[in-house]
Structure formats: C-alpha cells, structure tokens
Amino acid sequence: MTQTSDRARQRAQARAQERARDLSLLLGVLLALLGAVLLGLYYLALDGGAAPRLAELALARLPESGVGNPVTAVLVNYRAFDTLVELAVLLAAVLGIWSLGPAPPGFQRSGAVLAGMVSWVVPLLIVASGYMLWVGGYAPGGAFQAGALLGAAGVIVRLAGDPTAGLPAEATQRWLLVLGVLVFALVGLGLMLFGAGFLTYPPKLAKWLILLIESAATIAIAAALAAAYVGGRPAPSKAAIDDYGSDSSP
Amino acid sequence: MSQPALLLAFDAVLLATLLALALAAVLSPEPRRAVMLFIAFGLWLSLVWARLHAPDVALAEAAIGAGLGGALMLAAARRAARAARSNDDEAAG
Amino acid sequence: MHLDLLTDPLVLCIMLPLLGAVLTAALPRRAVLLGSLMAVATSAAAVTLTILVWQSGTLRVALGGWDQKLAISLRADGLATALVVMANIVGLGISVYASGYFRDPERMRAFWPLWLLLWAALNGLFLAGDLFNLYVMLELLGIAAAALGALTGSRDAIAANLRYLLVGLLGSITYLLGVALLYTAHGTLDLDLVAASIAADDELFAVNAATLVLMVAGLALKAALFPLHFWLPPAHANAPAPVSAALSALVVKAAFYLILRLWLDLFAPVTGMAAAMLLALLGAAAVVWGSWRALRAERLKLLAAYSTVAQIGYLFLFLPLLAATPAGPVRDSLLAALVLMAVTHGFAKAGFFLATGLVQTNAGHDRIDDLGGTAQRLPATTFAIALSGSALIGLPPSGSFIGKWLLMQCAIETGQWWWVIVVTTGTLLAAAYVFRVLSRAFGLEPTPLRFITDARAEIPALLLALVSVAVLGLASGPLWTLLGLQAGGDA
Amino acid sequence: MSLDLGPLLPGAIVLSSMLPGVLIFLVDEESHLLRTLLNLFGAVLKLVLVGVMIWGVWRGEVFESRLDIAPGLELVLHADALSVLFVSLSTVLWLITTVYAIGYLEYSVNRSRFFGFFSLCVSATVGIALAGNLLTFVIFYEILTLATYPLVAHRGTPEATRGAKIYLAYTLSGGLLLLVGAVWLRTLTGPVDFLAGGVLSGMPASMHGELVAIFVLLLAGLGVKAALVPLHGWLPQSMVAPAPVSALLHAVAVVKAGAFGILRVVFDVYGVEFAAELGLLAILAALASLTILYGSVLALTQDGLKKRLAFSTVSQVSYIALGASLLGPIATVGGMVHLVHQGIMKITLFLCAGNYAETLGVHKVSQMDGVGRRMPLTTLAFSVGALGMIGIPPIAGFVSKWYLGLGGVTAGQHWVLLVLAASTLLNAGYFLPILYRAWFRPLPAAWENEHRFQTRFETMGALLWPPVITAVLCLLAGLFAAAPVSPLQWAQLIARREYGL
Amino acid sequence: MTAQFLYGGAGLILFVLGLWSFLVHAPLLRKLIALNIMGGGVFHVLIAVAYRGDGVPPDPVPHALVLTGIVVAVSATALGLVLGARMQAGEREG
Predict the structure, then answer these.
(1) Which of A154, C138, D296, D344 fits a disulfide with A165 by CB distance 3.0 to 4.6 angstroms?
(2) Is the complex ipTM higher than 0.85?
(3) How far is the CA of C242 from the CAs of C16, C237, C250, C358, in angstroms?
(4) CATH number (domain holding residue E29)
C-alpha cells in the first residue's frame, strides 16, 4: 500500500521534473531566437552606426581634463556625475546591508600560514593601491582599482580572523564610507558656489581636485567593499562579539 | 596562415573559452563550484578586455567583479553549504 | 559667491538629498534633525525649480562645462518638473511622518540615509538628460528601495524585497543593453541628441524599434505593468508605512516616467499604434486584475499595493489615444490628463499608505476584516483614507476624476470606446475596495473625543490626501502651463 | 458704493454650509455649544444669502460663479429660476432639519462626524441646484453620494452598514452611467451650459441615434437617485438611517437631486420639444407611471412606518418626472411645483415618524393605535402631510395633482388621469388607515419605549416644532398658491421661460 | 568591424545565457550569478563597441561606463547576498 503510494509520488515527481525540463528547454529555444535577433540588430547598429562615436571628441578634449588617462578623464571629469552617483550606489548597498542587522561572527580562526601571509600581503596591497591611485592620472588605474585592492586587503584580514576586516569602529567607519560622496559633492557644490558650475573644474586646479576626489573615492570604495564583505553593521563592542561567539560555538 | 586570420582564430578561442566558462558556471548546480566557475569566468573576461585594449576595465573587473564579487559569493556559498549540513545534522540527530 | 539661479536648483534637487544622506549616515545620532532639515531644503529647491520652469520653460545644464555630446546633461522640462514637484512634496510629507514613525532608534538611523538616497535618485531620474546616467539612477533607486523595503526585518519583507531587488536588476540590465545598442547606433548618450539622431535617420528603424522594445520591457518590469507586477504587492505590503508610501507613490512612478520619456521624446518616430495598443491592453488587464485582487485582499496594505498595480494600468491606457490624436490642443490635454493622473496617484497613494500605517500601529495588524472600530477611533486617519480613496476611485473633485474624464472623452472621440468600459469597470471595482475599508469606520465603538490623535503622523497623511482631491481636482490648470501646453482642449 | 455680488453669491451659497461643515469635523465631540452654533450659523447664513439671491433673480439680476478646474473643464454655478426653486427648498428645509437633528442626535455618539457630513450633504445639494452645466452637475452629484454614505451608515449597526453599502452600490453605479453619458455628450457638443429651452435642438439628424443613447444613460444615472423603478432598490434599504437623514434623503437632497437632474436634462439640455421629437418623453412617461403605481402598491403592504413612507416617496417623486414627460407648460408647472410640495409634505411625515420613534418607540403602523391622543400636535402635522399626499384640497399636494391632470388633458394624454386616479386611491389606501388608527383607536396600556422629556409639550421642542412648521408650510403653499412668490407662481415663471412664452 | 561584431556578439550571447539561467534557476546564488553574467555580457558589448582596432586608441567613454557598471553590479550583488543570508537565518530561527 505504502509502496504503491511511494511509487505514485515518485512518478509524479518525475513528471514534474520532466515538465520543468521541457519548460526550460522551451524558454531556451525562445531566448535563442531572441539572441539571434539581437545579433542581427547589433550587426545593423554597428554597420549603420555613427562610427567614431564619442572617441575622437573625448580624446581631443583630454588635455583640458587635467589627467592623461582618457578613462579617468571620462570617469572623474566628463562624466563625473555618474561616478558620484555610483559612489552613492555603493553607499546605499552598504547602508542597506547594515540596516539588516549586525555582522555575523567571523567564522574562521586564522591558521599560521594565513596569518603569516597577511603580514606581507596586506602591506603589499596597500602600497599597490596607493600606486594604482597615483598612476591612474596617466596610465591604467585609478580610484576604483585602487579601492578594490585596498578593499581586498580588508577581505584578507577578515579571512585571517579579524571580524572587523581591519576597519575602524563604527563611528569612524561611517565617515570613511561617506567620504567619497562627501568630498565629491563638496567639491562640486563648492565650484558651483564660486561660479564655475557644478563639477566644472578650473583647468589650473583640475589635476589636484581630481586627485583629492580620487583619494577620497579610493578610501570610500575600499571601506565599502570591505564592509560589504563583513556583511553587517559592525558590532558595538568586543564584549558583545564574544557573547555572540560563545552563543553560536558548540 | 595570415596574421589577421591567426588573430581571428585567437579571438575565437578566447571567446569560446569565455562562453564555455559562462555556460559551466550557469549550469553547475553545486554552489561552490558555480562560484568558482564564475570567478574563472570573470578573470577570463578581464583577459578578453585586456585584449580589447581596455586595461582599466580589465583591472577593475579582475579586482572587483571577479575578486570581491567572487569572494562575497564564495562566503555565501560556504554559508549555504554549512546551513545545508547543519540542517542535515538536525535531520539525522 | 556666485549663484546661477537658472541651473543651480536643478543640481541642488539632486545634491541636497545626497548630501543629507551623507550627513545622516555619518552622524546617526542626529539623523532625524539633519534628515528633516535636508528634506525641507530639498523641497524648497524643488519648489524653486518649479517656479523657474513655470516662468522660463525648459531648463538644462551640461555638467562640467563640456559639450552636450560629451557631458552629462540635466534638464527640467514641464513633464519632469511636474513629477519632481509631486515627488518632493510627497517626500516632505513622508519625512515628517517618518520622523515620528520608527520606535526603534536603529531603524530610524537606518531609515534616514537610505530614504534620502532614494529621494536623490528620484530627483536624479526625473531630471537626468543622459541615458547612462538614468541607468545609474535606476540602480540607486532600486537598491535604496529594496533596502528600505526590508527595513521591518520580517522574513516576508526580506523575501519580498530580495525578489524586488533581483527583478529590478533584471529590468535595469535589460535597459542597459538598450543603452549599449543606442550608443552603438547613434554614438552618444545624450537624450536630446539621440532623439534627434533617431528622428533624422530611418535606416536604423529596426534597431531603434527593437531597442525600444528592450528598454520598455525592462522598465515595465520596474513599473510593475501587468503581468510583470508579481513582485510589487508583497514588496510594498511588507515595508514600513512611510517606505510603502514612497515605493508605491514615487518609485513605481519613476519607472513609468522613464517609459513615457522614451516613448514620447526618444522613440517618437518609431512608436506605432500596434505597440501602443499592446501596452494599453496590458494596462487594461492591470486595471481589472489589480482592482479585483485589491478587492479580495485580506490586508489593508496589500489592498493598497494591488491598487497601485491597477493605477499604473490606467496610465498605459493613454498611449494608443496619444497615438491616435494629432498634435494640437486635444493631444495636449490628453498628455496633461496623463500627468495629472500620475501626480494625483502619487499624492493619493502616499496619503493612503501613511494613513494605513497609522491604522496598523493602532490596531497592531492590518487585516481588514478584523479592524473593527480602529478606523472609528481615528477620525483624521479615516478621513485621509477616505479622501485619498476617493482620488483612487476617481470621484470628483479629484485630479484623477479630471484625468478619467479627459481619457474617456478622448476614447470616445477617437472611436476607441472600449477603454471607457475598462475605466468604468476599474472605477466600480476601486469604489468597492475603498468602501470595503471605509465601511469599517462605522461601528458601535465609543466615540473619539478629538479629530486628530497624533498630529505628526496624521497631518501629513491628511494634507497629501487633500492635495490629491482639492488642489488637483479643482485647480489643475497650472499643470497645463507648467507642461507648456495649449490650454483649452475642446474641439 | 456697491459690491458686485453677481460672481460671488452662488459660490458663497455653496460654501456657507461647506466651510462650517469642515470646521464641525474638527470640533471636539463634547463641545455641544460650538457645534450647534456652527450648524445654525451655516444654516441661517445660507438662508440669508438665498434670500438675497431670490430677490436678485426676481429683479432679473444674473448670478454666476465660474472656476476653471482644468482648461476646457469649467465649474459653473448659475442661478436661474429653476435652480432658485430647488435652492430655496433645500435651504429652508435644511434649517428645519438641522434644528430637528440637533434635538434628535445631540445626545448620541459621533456627532461631529454626523453634522459635518450633514452640512457637506446640503452643500452638495445646493451645488446640484446651482450647477450651470453638466460637468458641475456630475461633480456635485457624486459629492452628494459620498456625503450621504456616512449618514446612512451612521448608526454603525450591521443593518446600517448593509443599507449603506446597497445605497452606495446603486448610486455610484448610477453616477458612473451619468458620467459616461455626460462625457459622451460633451464629445458631440463641446462644453455647453444649461439653457432654458435646451441646447441640442440644432443637432443634425445623423446624431439623433447617439443622442437617444446618451439620454438613456443620463436617465439611468439620474433615475437611481430619483428611485425610478427598477432602480429604486436602495431607497427602502437605507431606511435604517436616523430620522433626520431619512428626511434629508427623501425630501431635501438625494431623491430630489435625481428628480431635479431629470428636469434639467429634459428642459435645459435636450429641450422638452426636442426630447418629444426624439421620442424620449414617451420612455420617461412610461417609467414614471410605472413607478407611481408600483411604489404605491408596495407601500400598501408595508407595516414599518418608515418603509411605508419610503415606498410612498418612490411613487410621489415620479410625479415630477411625469410632469417633465408631458409636453406643455401646464404639466411642466405640475411637475416643477411638486418638487417643492413633495419635499415639504414628505419631510413633515418623516419628522413625525421620527418623533413617534423617539418619544414612544413606535416604529410600525400596527403600533400606532391612539398616538393622536398621546401626541396631538405631531399627529396633526402628520395628518396634514398625509392628506396632502393623497391630494385633499387645500393642501399643497392637491395643487400638484391638479396641474398634472390638467396638463395631461391639454397634452391630449388622457391616460394621465387614470394614473393619477389610481395613485390617489392607493395613497388613500395606505395613509387613511394610519390616520384612523392614530385618531380613533384606543391608547395602549403602555408604549414600547417611552421617553418623557422635561417639557409641557408632548415631546422635546426641537423635535416638535419642525414638523409643525413644515405642516403649516404645506397648508400655506396650498392656500396661497396664487400669491406672488408661492412655489406655484415660481414654477409658472420657470415654465414660461422654458417654453419661451 | 569583424572583431567588434565577434566580441559584441559574444556579449549578447552571454546576456541571453544569463537571462535563461535567471529565469529557470531558483536558488538565489544561481540567480545572482546569472545576473552578473548578463551584466558581463552587456559590458562586453560596450567594450567591443569601444574597440577600434589594434592601432587606434579605443573609445574611453564605454570603458568608463563599464567601470561604473561593475561597481554597481557588485553593490547589488552584495546586498542581494546579505538579504539572502538574513532570510536563511530567519528560516532557521522560525
């Protein structure tokens, strides 16, 4: 009796699986069609499109931008506003993560090898990050890459067992997180207040203002990425962390 | 073989690998494996972008997309695996 | 010191809330004070902007002083400004309400910066003149909205908002693919320039049309157009009340605004009657299905959320009518009616959700059938529900009454009389679900002594509801002026 | 120095009760005095303003307020002879009902809510009366629906909410039909103000089909409130409301608004001659006659006093529609004057019914034995109203029936006499037994639920005098029908203008 | 032009592949991977469009867009993962 019902259930399950497979196949065929259409359109767009697009213009205006790396020029000058909002996106994500509660405890005790690695990898990453930031003005690199490297240092520290990922206490950390948007916004609004227009750098100051913004952005990006990896609001005190840890450990 | 043709073949291999990695990442049902494949995909993607003269983006993708994104996903995958294990334990005990 | 009055408010509308978000994030203990100050400042900037646009027409600025082609432009035309002023007044109301809503200080601190980021994203979205900037704003909006929606921390809320986040990402990535294709084809990201390029070149018709489909599909997902609305009701119904108000009244509206912008400005030469008819059919289905589900909803907030699905549907009914009407005062009136309905819904739904939140805190739940005398104990709140409810139904005097009147008039004039049936069906269903709630206000409960019980929460709800009814319903003429349209749409 | 009241007065008349109404919502529940003052202030102010307006209209002045609610959509309040008729009726009766309601409800619960909506309700009615175009009419018509809903549901009992729900379902659906009709008409004609003699007669014949369809929509929308059979279902259900609300529904506002709308559409939109040409009057006449007879028959079978009065309303209000459906000035006069006469007679009856319920706990006809001896003044007033309804001279109702019958004969529609005769017999059939019981049956040993008020009269003053006053008005309207500003004279003025005589 | 089409085409295929995976796979992690692959596909199209042959400097504008896009994508991924983790935790507690 139970055997037959089991078998019936298995059969039903198999049928459901089959249906799901059929459905996903059907979807696959439809999407393949979509892909073909997209390819055709993309070809048409490339073929009939406005070939140089913004390339020539962006490169031609490069000397006025205050930096030598065209991508940095676009990021922090031509389309600086995008970058500002993007930093806000990062901030929103971290604040969103924080709003969901305190961070889970660091779940790994550091092995000797890892701890040894931290002692030389982290300084290396910090130096590399600084280099990346500086070099971004005229060669590949810039705030994002630098911030990512610095953030990666934080991730490694966290992996090595420090639950804070090397980040300071909450109050300071908050300032680090907002630093990018804050400096960007203040520079932009300051320029507006002095008549240059929002985010319109005077050519003479452009290089330094961009460096200032990029430095702040680097710190903010690094802090945000590390904080995102921590995965929650920093715990208020050491004692609280210990409590949490003792609760969850067997 | 002429140089453009060689380059084209090189491009084709690059892209085929990229698509294969993506397909593997998408099809892998095991979380940790999927994330590993995704990281590989991201790194390969940055390689392709370097080939397309986009070193800035390639760096960023390697560091942020594949690196940090991958690390985040890996942690999540580990958590998921642990949760699944503890659920199994509960079920067993 | 130098102030350029013509472009500064444009920038300030986005930067002030952004700055506010930074400050409230950095100084969580003073979040309420700083947040409220920035909310007031932002609204003031928005009102200034409105006055400027009113006086001198469309404002635009290419940021950074670069060529329009290279730079990111901000622009405020009538359509954008109408939505900005709505969003900012509603935002101010939500801010006042929220300052007294959260009991838990942690939630209060988490709320403010995210809310101000959301606000910045809204203004940015309305004012952006650049395709990619719109994408970044969309993402900021989506992330901030999902984070805010999950603020109650309940499992349902987190699940719903996770889904919302994923769906939003899907929508915005699809939109971004459209941007990539447009850049490939037209070589710029500036809205006006792409529009000019599309208008000038019909060789790329297929590309443009397909891009339109792609972008509208992505945005319809975010605007919760039937049948892509599945994510909305749980997400909006489980958020804290001020957040629900912002999500339903403003965030969905922003996605719709973007569709409208693309439809009317960017892709005008490409759009056709068939596509408009398809969208309107989906809109009609949304009206009927959303209203029906609202009627069947067990919870008050779920009812309000489904009502949003229906109300978004109405907006899509205008598209085939716009397509069928030649340029002129009649079409202008139709366009104004469309904006009027969107704006009215913004005010009404915000008022409705804020009032609903009060009912929920007062009763401890929001199951409609068990509300008993809660509504009767809160006269001002019930009034807010009644006023905003009548705007949702489209009863006079309310902005949506005028909107529906003009919609039906145009539907009959252009021979598309079937929309009249949709509108009347939707109106009846809306009346049924609103009065299903209002009938709870009459019970054998003891009499409340005062009209207002909690001024900080009730007055914003009441005022927002009142605007949707009395201001927009009795004096909507200024909207025509703001939109720069010819008045007097009778022919 | 003279203030030009022309563009202000109609708006002021609407606001004179609307603003106090809004303020009343804000009044604390226990502030009896403030609320009463606001109520009476609004009512008296409105009466004064209406007096000024009557004086002005009599002298031929034009009163018109206009407000653009959107380009092309204009809110127009305009005082013409027909609107003055309805405005005066509702303003006078509102004052009386307010006094009555204060007495009736001031010691129950949720008074601020009640009186707030009470004031909004009369504001909407006055707005309907003064509406200068169909858009304005629709707006106030819907507001009236919304403002009366809370009044019907006021008691909060399950029956009350059920009655209110039914009321709402009927009136909102009707309102929607009206709206669609109005929108449709507008697509054909553009914005059109009401005009004596109608505005549509110049429409080309190709549009006549559409115009008939629109008329059917409008009639269906208005017929709901006017309780034309088969759209009358809500009226008996909403009898659960407190007595002043019933009075308001039946005599002052809701039902009247429907009937008034029918008059407006027939006379000032289509024009009575054009409507006859399209064959619309025949439809209306058939519906009205059916309603008159059907309502009376049902009234006969009711034991509940208010229910019986409700069905009587169904029947009596259709006299107005009947008057509108007969071509010729005499029938028109009959219909128009009945707008007023039915109002004052029916309010008398309802206020009396409220008194019986409040003082003695009597709700049914079968409990009314001997009430005349216990409450002679109230019963006297009731008798005047009832006899007037039957059509006994010299009470107001006789005048209406006389003109209607005469109008029917002049129009060559002799069947009207049959309808009137049958209706009169039926009226007698359901009213005379009540009077018989009240005056000639012995008193019961004890009343159901008797209240003794601290007064030397049979009941509280605020409850007693309003019906007495309206009963006197019924007599005066009948006795002095030939006097210069009597309802009859005013109706004749309107008819002369409508027919261009 | 050939390389542009080849690489961009691969991007489109990635987009479609990600879309398919997003629609048919339920687990959060797989959905996020799918979204990231979709995003990667779109970025790939942009980078391909920016590419103008080996001797010519590429168009920096799409590069900057992609950089921005990468950060946005990682932000969204991080939030999504934490939301997922909280939901899981809630499930275990409940």
Answers:
(1) A154
(2) yes
(3) 20, 11, 11, 10
(4) 1.10.287.3510
